[in-house]
Write a structure and sequence with these properties.
α1 (about 5-25) packs antiparallel against α2 (about 30-40) and α2 (about 30-40) crosses α3. The longest helix has 22 residues, at about 5-25. This protein has two domains: about 5-65, no CATH class; about 70-235, Endonuclease Chain A (Endonuclease, Chain A, 2-Layer Sandwich), CATH 3.30.870. The protein contains nine helices and eleven strands. The strands form two sheets. Strands 2-1-9-8-7-3-4-6-10 form a nine-stranded mixed β-sheet, sandwiched between helices. Strands 5-11 form a two-stranded parallel sheet. Helices cover about 45% and strands about 20% of the residues. The protein is of the alpha/beta class and about 240 residues long.
């Protein structure tokens, strides 16, 4: 028979995994197993009391998530400013992603090709990726390899021009694991990463990251973005 403390650790792990899955993927199915184990361990508790225990755990988990922000800068190497650098921060954010990645792109150039390779690798590893593009016709050459790649883990959305023909997707945002977000003025281009003066913040906040993703999802529902068909050249199918 399991020692009591081992069983408590096991249940706590189930609850922790369920909360993480819910926060990242909005999937609450993992709670079922945790609730079953809680009902076995606290056999005298009612169903309502068991649900209260789970809710308390979720609130404690949210309270522990400290919000943190750091300045991210694109500037000449000679600038002696204490700040994270845009290209290195972007690359590390993508490489460290374990579950989900959301990226918006206004202007993308061939300079971004090595980052595209990293995105494709992440998709091959099972990371869910959503890429929102402003003007697909202008970006096709730079995105050719990615657009030819078809994976159930990769979704690309194209901005649909509104009544105001000058309006555009101008946001430059990357969200990693619904936990960290890089919000910057920098485009995914040489000048955005190296040539210009660009500023932004790397924000560690599940609430803010999730809010960004919810805004983009709502815009998809409102048909501001249209899903782009990938793999038209038949390459790299999962």
């Amino acid at each position: 028979m399991w020692d009591s403390s081992i069983r408590v650790d096991y249940i706590a792990g189930l609850i922790k995994d369920a909360i993480e899955n819910y926060l990242v993927n909005e999937d609450d199915s993992s709670f079922t197993k945790a609730i079953i184990e809680l009902e076995k361990y606290f056999s005298n508790c009612s169903e309502t009391e068991i649900i209260d225990i789970v809710n308390i755990c979720m609130q404690l988990s949210s309270a522990k998530r400290v919000e943190h922000a750091e300045l991210v800068l694109t500037a000449p190497d000679s600038f002696r400013v204490k700040a994270l650098r845009t290209k290195e921060t972007l690359r590390k954010l993508i490489e460290d992603t374990a579950k989900s990645l959301t990226i918006t792109g206004y202007a993308i150039s061939d300079y971004f090709s090595d980052i595209l390779d990293a995105i494709i690798r992440k998709s091959q590893q099972g990371v869910y990726i959503k890429l929102y593009i402003n003007d697909m016709e202008k970006q096709k050459c730079s995105l050719e390899r990615l657009l030819a790649y078809k994976s159930r883990f990769l979704q690309v959305y194209e901005y649909q021009h509104q009544e105001d023909k000058m309006a555009a997707l101008h946001a430059k945002i990357i969200v990693s694991d619904a936990r960290k977000a890089l919000v910057s003025s920098a485009n995914l281009s040489y000048h955005g990463m190296q040539g210009n003066i660009e500023m932004g913040f790397l924000i560690e906040s599940s609430d803010k990251a999730k809010q960004i993703e919810e805004v983009l999802k709502e815009m998809v529902r409102m048909k501001v973005f249209r899903k782009y068909e990938l793999g038209r050249k038949g390459a790299n199918n999962d």
